[in-house]
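Hi P.,

Sorry for the delay on this. The queue was packed all week, but I finally got your sequence through. Input first:
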Amino acid sequence: MADISELRYVKGIVNCFIVNYNPAKVRCNRFRLRKMPTINQSYKKFNLSNFHQPSFLHASNIYCVNLRQYSPEGSMTAFSAQLPRLKDMGVEILWFMPIHPIGKVRRKGTLGSYYSIADFREVNPEFGSKADFKLLVETAHQMGMKVIMDWVANHAAWDNVWTISNPDFFVKDDTGNFKPPYDWDDVIQIDHSNEKEQQAMIDAMLYWIGNFNIDGFRADLAHLTPLSFWINARVQASSLKDDLIWLAETEEIDYHQAFDISFSWQWMHGTEDYCKGQKDFSALIHILEHYKNDFPLDALRMWFTSNHDENSWNGTAFEKYGNYVKAFSVFNASFPGIPLIYSGEEAGLSKRLKFFDKDPIDWNDHAGWHDFYKKLLHLRKRNDAISAGSDSYPVFLEGFREKNMLAYYRIKGNSAVLVFINLSKEKQTLSFDTEGFSGNYIDIFSGERVWLHAAGTIALEPAGFLLLEKD
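Then the structure:
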């Protein structure tokens, strides 16, 4: 057998956003920068030991809710009617894109960007009322789900309420006017050096915990706001609720001092480039090696084939991955970390949803996507080899690299999973030794039983996959 730790990391195409925020010197590309950030080896001291990391995260999943496009009504009430379906699928953590009122000044499109916030303590009437949101959270909790809010701490709408009550909360240009960060002209830059602003922002976060019993936050472009702010926010929030979920849109390693989970942008772009013939298979393995060796052990990575930004601006999962969407979804659910499902993916979302205007999801699932994700999410919940996280790190099978196949097993006690994913453009056959994981297995998709003796052989078509669970 060959463990992935035997591999060596080399630089690849990365989505790193901004490493050090300085609007005077840095031009930001929100989506892709073709430069790998230098790894500061002091990251090895970073950990979440000062905070309580919810133990259920390793077996859980995240579902991103785009309320505007979820239904013709686009309301919280309409979404609530879908909670039983999501519960059946196995969804556990609901990440709501910003639910706050959207600024009208310099608004883009007819409805504006969710991330141009006019008031951090109010609800966008487009989606409903505070009473609607409170009921939604209560209903989700009754079904065993968690609710986290999207939080934008770096910028706000031009007509945010603080521009009147606290104009000093924002950065100004040489003429004394508010200024946008980079070319994002529908928002203005918050002044992170203002301690009163930082506390006011934290107070707003505490408001939603204390009054609505939410379960955590997804931090928009977390690295554009100082790490000290997020640590302070988590310290104060933990005094209200100790098992909150903290998800950061960043790949800055040191931000895991404050966050449980971070985005895997490098993997997402690397796999897209691979599918488009711009990267070879070894580049993908190098990224996984980077994640394993350079991030803290308690850092959870979030895997995804799509999200709100990627879908609207860069293309659907099918535009990016073609026939390999399910293959990468199997990886997302079986590798250490936590998988993300974006609104509509469980219906085979095949169109780019408009970001600033109404554009409802087509919910006609003709390909069984709901059941596909259901099998994956329920496996995560019941299988100890997956819920053990880094304690059951995958062991890769000998010869997987030559075949352009992800082939690995995970074991914890009597539980085991065996995963084969053919990422090549050709049919591949892989022979392997089963020492250490032989036994009776079940194909989680077909239900067929497979007995693995001393050796095994598998043949998969391009984009084919097999996920076996030890019986």
